[in-house]
Structure formats: C-alpha cells, structure tokens
Amino acid sequence: MADLADRGADVPRPGRTLTVNDEPLTVTSSAGATLLEVLRGAGHTDVKEACGRGECGACTVLVGGRAVMACTQLAALVTGDVTTADGLGEAAADLREAFADYGAFQCGFCTPGQIVRAESILLEYVDISRDEVVRCMSGNICRCTGYRQIVDAVCAVASSRRNDPEGKS
Ligand code: FES
Ligand code: FES
C-alpha cells in the first residue's frame, strides 16, 4: 500500500513555476497560499479580491482555459496555464469594447472577472442563448449595473463572433 509520501509524490509544491499570461511565475509563498494571493502578490492586480470565499467572481481567471475563482484554488495545486483579464489581450478586445458600448460597468471593480468569465463561456459555447448567458454569468456579482447591460454586451459579442468567426469584418 502506498504511504503518504508516495501518494503525495505528484502533488506540485511551492517553489515550482506557474505560467501566468505566458510568463513564468515562481510560487514562493506558503503551501496554503491561494492562487489569488500569489497573483496579486506578483502584481497581477487586475485579479480583484472581494469576498475571498468563492461567492462573487471578482477574482475569476482562466486555468487551463477554464474559468475558476482564484480565491478558491491553492496555488501549489494549480496544474494549468493561468490567464488573467490583462492576459486575454486582443482576444477579448471585442468584449472590452462591448462592455464600454453597452454601459456594462460603472465602478469597474467586477469587470476583469466578468470579462474573463464571458470569454470562457464564449470559447466553450459557439451558439449560446441569452438565457444561457444569464445562467453562465450568474456567479459574477456586480453591485453597480443591474446585470442587463452585462448580458447585453456578452450577447452582442456572442452574436458577432457567430456571424464573423474570423473577426474580419
Ligand atoms: S474574491 Fe474570489 S470569488 Fe469573491
Ligand atoms: S461595475 Fe461596479 S461592481 Fe460591477
């Protein structure tokens, strides 16, 4: 029977290197540090901290292409490349423009997490209905906008990407 050391042999330890926005980031914090703490400690302040317990979505990032709340992940156990809102770059330019055009932010605190969440669902679902957008975005809290504008913006980008998948028009 495998002992504890054997069972933990493939668990990543602090001191290893993550890839964040295509750049290496060595995790030197304690084993209990969250991905949110590590990212913000390294200057990725586009990843916002609010509830700190997986309830608001402000800290949403992509890990291996899937949206996760960084405050709920131990940095030492993260296994995929990490992308923050800043790291989305030109891929999410249409979302940023739509958020501005539709008035989908006011204070802007929740916006990086909203953009990352929106990008993740648009990558996953080519044909997404408004109801599905509402459901998929529901974990990201906004205290300012009332949500309709956020859903409008995401639906507009969904439609535009569907009609012009290469983004050439
Ligand atoms: S700060 Fe992570 S979900 Fe609220
Ligand atoms: S724009 Fe202020 S919390 Fe969303």
Q: How do the strands and helices of this protein lay out in sequence?
A:
Blueprint: H1 4-7, E1 17-20, E2 23-26, H2 35-41, E3 60-63, E4 66-69, E5 82-83, H3 85-88, H4 93-101, H5 111-124, H6 130-137, H7 148-163
Antiparallel strand pairs: 1-2, 3-4, 3-5
Helix pairs in contact: 4-7, 6-7
The chain binds FE2/S2 (inorganic) cluster (2 copies).
What does this structure look like?
There is one protein chain. With 169 residues, the chain is α+β, with helices and mostly antiparallel strands. The chain folds into 2 domains: 4-86, Ubiquitin-like (UB roll) (Roll); 88-163, DNA polymerase, domain 1 (Orthogonal Bundle), CATH 1.10.150. It is 37% helix and 11% strand. It has helices at residues 4-7, 35-41, 85-88, 93-101, 111-124, 130-137, 148-163, and strands at 17-20, 23-26, 60-63, 66-69, 82-83. It has a 3-stranded antiparallel beta sheet with strand order 4-3-5. A hairpin with a 2-residue loop joins strand 1 (17-20) and strand 2 (23-26). Helix 4 crosses helix 7 and helix 6 packs across helix 7. The radius of gyration is 17 Å and the shape is globular. The termini are far apart. Mean pLDDT is 90; it is low at 1-12. Bound molecules: FE2/S2 (inorganic) cluster (2 copies). Residues 105-111, 142-145 line the site of one FE2/S2 (inorganic) cluster (FES).
By DSSP, the count of extended strands is 5
CATH architecture of the largest domain: Roll
Low-pLDDT parts are 1-12
Helix content: 25-40%
Write out the distinct hetero groups bound to the structure.
FE2/S2 (inorganic) cluster
What is the CATH topology assignment of the largest domain? Ubiquitin-like (UB roll)
Strand % is 5-15%
Structural class: alpha+beta
